[in-house]
What we know:
This protein is of the alpha+beta class. It has helices at residues 2-19, 59-70, 83-86, 134-138, 188-196, 198-206, 310-323, 398-408, 428-431, 437-440, and strands at 24-31, 50-51, 90-99, 110-114, 119-121, 146-148, 150-153, 167-169, 185-187, 217-218, 222-232, 237-250, 252-255, 258-272, 285-287, 294-299, 325-330, 353-360, 365-367, 370-371, 376-377, 381-383, 389-395, 411-412, 445-450, 456-457. The strands form seven sheets. Strands 1, 3, 4, 9, 10, 13, 14, 15 and 16 form a nine-stranded antiparallel beta sheet that branches. The protein has a five-stranded antiparallel beta sheet with strand order 18-23-17-25-24, sandwiched between helices. A hairpin with a 4-residue loop joins strand 11 and strand 12.
Amino acid sequence: xxxxxxxxxxxxxxxxxxxxxxxxxxxxxxxxxxxIVRDGRPFNNTPGARAYTQSFPPPSVLAGVIxxxxxxxxxxxxxxxxxELVKQIQIYGPLLFKLPNPNQAxxxxxxxxxxxxxxxLFEPDVKTAAQATDDQLSKPATxxxxxxxxxxxxxxxxxxxxxxxxxxxxxxxxxxxxxxxxPQFWYWKYFLQWLHHPEGLIDQxxxxxxxxxxxxxxxxxxxxxxxHTQIDPNRQSAEDGRLFQTRGLTFTQANDGQLAxxxxxxxxxxxxxxxxxxxxxxIKLAPLGGERRLATWHNVPTTNCSPYDQATIDEIATKIGQxxxxxxxxLTPAMFSEGYRPTWLCRDVDGVQPKLxxxxxxxxxxxxxxxxAIRKAKPTRRLAPAGTVFFLDLDGTSTAIETWVxxxxxxxxxxxxxxxxxSANTDNQEKEVHPEQDRRDGFGLAVFGTWDGEFVKLKxxxxxx
Length: 465
């Protein structure tokens, strides 16, 4: 009888242990070597071949590593029976993250987000101190070098192939040239200001508290190019003419070659295991990207100064609920069945009917890959790039709109994209792809910003003649 009680007590403790397991993993991933994220150009053993890299890893790269780690057994072997199960792990990210520099006391860790497409940076009136007089340096900038692109009211009789949506651009012409050093990623503190109060950030550029475009963020990840040679296994020496190159992303930004002031960058990614009942693996060191180059994984909690700060979410949601309009900005590329235009996002959900009014978007991003499950190439697809801005009109009550914004904040909004016609993959396994798989893979991670809903009139009228 005592043994039965002991068994019941042990079972209870095991159930408590199972329920206490974390269902979410959050990591900072720091590559030890330049990270290769191959694009679609061929790379083989032809002498002189070059392996090019994308400018930033897409979500599917991190999804593959995380799911591979979740499906391994105690011997480190992947269990093929868990393929469909690990595909249900929801991925959020990756986002760029700046690690603190131990040599600088005031250097704080901070998220970096893709530059929003509705921001345009120009060369300042005074480019360098060498070109300016003392009087010019002492005076504040006469005009901001940061301008905002807004939906504009088209002139009467004007037509384009974008008639169903409003045009997005400058209200008045600017004679200056666009800045040569456009930051590809913005620090979160400035990105948050752009979400909540863009005009306030523009004012800061006039008062010199934000002096140049590089203050907003970093230009991008540096490219490291390396030349390799093929080794003859019999002679243990290089083969003549067998040279090839690889290009990888460097996550250490050295300022003017000063290593003591270098910025260490990492990738932040979050994974939700709730739908799988799998345990979150303790990843310390794992290969990432091409050539199985290693990266260190640090399990971290969410910081207060982050996109997950609840006070920030509540403040923006309240303001959007009051106006009934918003901007949605992509933090990762998104896949839509109608190309640049979302459909899943524009459903009537929980009493809120979003209507797409205008889009600020750049050139489409093309992505492909290799499907390890069926051992075939994935179809090439075109994505709305990170930084794309959707201007939305939200029909619903203030309370419903606030709830809708909180629900979709830092969630993925890609469509249920069907497989393209004429795809070479005909396996039954591919036909059973879940319609929400693109969202599960992390495509279309989004946050919200404010917008007054106005279409601004151009200040310079067209010549009627």
